[in-house]
Design brief:
Layout (H helix, E strand, L loop, with lengths): L5 E4 L6 H6 L8 E6 L2 H17 L7 E6 L5 H6 L6 E7 L4 H5 L26 H7 L2 H12 L4 H14 L5 H11 L2 H4 L7 H12 L1 H15 E11 L2 H14 L20 E4 L8 H6 L7 E7 L13 H6 L2
Parallel strand pairs: 1-2, 1-4, 2-3, 4-5
Antiparallel strand pairs: 5-7, 6-7
The structure holds S-adenosylmethionine and zinc ion.
């Protein structure tokens, strides 16, 4: 980033990444921090304010801290207001802070009510509601598709059987049920056997894959020419969405190879994308075990969008602006 730019961290969390970026956009820059978790926002806001006022810079970057879901990026950025963004960051999933607070119910390693809402003030559906009210078939679908759990059907049946006795309300009860459903030979490797069930439930509760698509598509529209979009994901379902979108938006002409001239008029929205995902170095992995599953992809928006005659968007842009 360079001074004076507008940067938007769509997953502010504890503000770690934002803190390292803020000095680079000073002076004259604007740092927008979004998170759907009020606790994270308050913590990061105080941290960023202190760090920016400690800079020797006489006019440090301004801050705009906004509570909301990045799926609603259009409405959130209109509040600032700002005409466009030079850099976006999405560092997906839950924060270490959220995992460490047992009462949020994100962790299979701590006993807590089965909650998993990232925004408990707005979201109504908890993990307990999904576990206790979803049919076995739908539960199996969630576990297979959002957790890539090969024992999805067995786990779903165990859950349905257990909840007949009494509703399943705690993380430790769910861990016990999952363990009992997985054959012993599979329990010995691959970490905690409940890991994939917890991932699946968290994705379902927070509709994480839908909001990711919505957020990324909105970010592409808000990016200024030559603006940068960086996404760090922590499981293959998210990474696949990022990779597919980046590949799709870096396509140019899609006319059949035998066509004598281009009639589609599609120009790449991204001029450059990362060839493959960047992963953490062994030192980074040692320092921060969460980085083991992290994959970072970046994309740079094409320098200029050619407006077509008559003021309409060119077909490529129009296609992606729907
Ligand atoms: C991995 S943490 C980010 C950590 C941050 N980069 C840092 O350096 O401290 C992810 C954060 O994104 C937030 N988050 C996840 N999905 C979100 C969404 N759809 N909209 C807004 N915030 C979201 C979570 O509440 C959490 O605080
Ligand atoms: Zn073409």
């Amino acid at each position: 980033m360079t001074s004076g730019e507008v940067f938007c961290d769509c997953t502010l969390g504890g503000g770690g990444h934002a803190l390292t970026i803020a000095p680079d956009i000073s002076p004259g820059g604007l740092l927008i921090g979004i998170d759907q978790d009020v606790e994270a926002l308050n913590f990061a806001h105080a941290r960023l304010k202190a760090a920016l006022s400690a800079l020797s810079d006489p006019s440090p970057a301004r801050l705009a801290i906004i509570k909301g879901n990045f799926a609603d990026l259009d409405e959130l950025l209109i509040q600032v207001p700002v005409p466009g963004i030079d850099g976006f960051l999405f560092d997906l999933g839950v924060s270490s802070h959220q995992l460490d607070i047992p009462s949020r119910g994100f962790s299979y390693a701590r006993d807590a009510p089965l909650d998993m809402r990232m925004d408990p003030g707005t979201q109504t559906t908890t993990a307990a509601e999904i576990i206790n009210n979803t049919t076995a078939a739908d539960l199996a679908w969630i576990l297979r598709n959002f957790g890539e759990e090969r024992h999805a059907v067995q786990i779903a049946h165990r859950i349905v059987k257990a909840r007949v006795q009494a509703p399943i309300t705690s993380t430790s009860e769910l861990v016990r049920i999952v363990k009992s459903a997985i054959p012993a030979r599979y329990r010995r490797s691959g970490g905690n056997p409940a890991k994939r069930t917890f991932q699946a439930l968290r994705i379902a509760v927070n509709r994480e894959l839908d909001v990711l698509e919505a957020g990324l598509n909105a970010a592409v529209r808000w990016l200024n020419p030559a603006g940068r979009l960086v996404v760090i994901s922590y499981h293959s379902l998210e990474d696949r969405i990022v990779k597919n979108l980046f590949n799709e938006l870096s396509k140019s002409c899609i006319c059949p190879p035998e066509a004598p001239i281009c009639t589609c008029g599609i120009k790449p929205i991204f001029s450059r994308i990362s060839k493959r995902a960047l992963v953490a170095t062994s030192e980074q992995r040692e320092d921060n075990p969460r980085s083991k599953s992290a994959k970072l992809r970046w994309a740079i928006k094409s320098p200029e969008e050619d407006p077509s005659p008559g003021g309409d968007l060119d077909p490529g842009v129009a296609r992606h602006r729907q």
